[in-house]
Amino acid sequence: MKRLYSAYAGPLLRLVRSVDDAEMDFGVDQFGNLDFLAIASWAGGSALLGKRWYNQFGGDDYVQTVKASMPRFSPMGINGAPCFVFDGGNDYMKAFLSNPITGTDLFAAALMRTATGVANFDGIVNGAAISDLNDFQSATSCTVNWGTGGTVILYRSGAQSTTAVGTASVDANVVATGRISGGNLYAGANGTEAAGEATAGNLNIEESWVGARFYNDVPNNQMPVALAGVAMFGGDPGATDRGAVIDYLKSVGGIT
Prior knowledge:
The chain is mainly β. It contains 2 helices and 19 strands.
């Protein structure tokens, strides 16, 4: 939760003051970090909730308009880095992608604090484990989701299945990654990537969720996780740029 793109001059977060439901956008200080002084002054000791997490690259924001489902804002939740804390009960945020991610390649990474220590990649393809990404072509709704233990999840409407592809330490800070390249599936935690099985096909990702899995057009199986940063790219940026994104997120979270 800091300025990632030097030309970006907009806010980073829209927070809700729990005590009176007042809302306010917050940007960065002179160093490009989230303006903690402005937030603390406005909060006045009240708990703060997250309503909007702005996309700094001109895309679509993560949003939650229902107060009971808003994540809690923590100013120093991940090694001193600010984050949203999803309670595992009913918290989640969702972004509708005005330009869906298509093609066969996708790369995503997230800085998070795990809760269960299991890093996995979940997928839905007609109720079976991911084996043919062509099934995503006809999906009415697809999602990329970040959750417990470094989870990176690709979703479409329908039944749900899970493939475990890695592990992370319990209650530890991790950078979770997920990648589809040429139809091959990869996922991992803390910068590592483990291969999964999938054949070539086209994606049609129209939504991205955080804090909850997606099932039959409703949030399902919310996951307790602290989330400080998300990066998602349509296409495979290549090993060098993937490594740069992972290293940057690790540095923000104080991960060695």
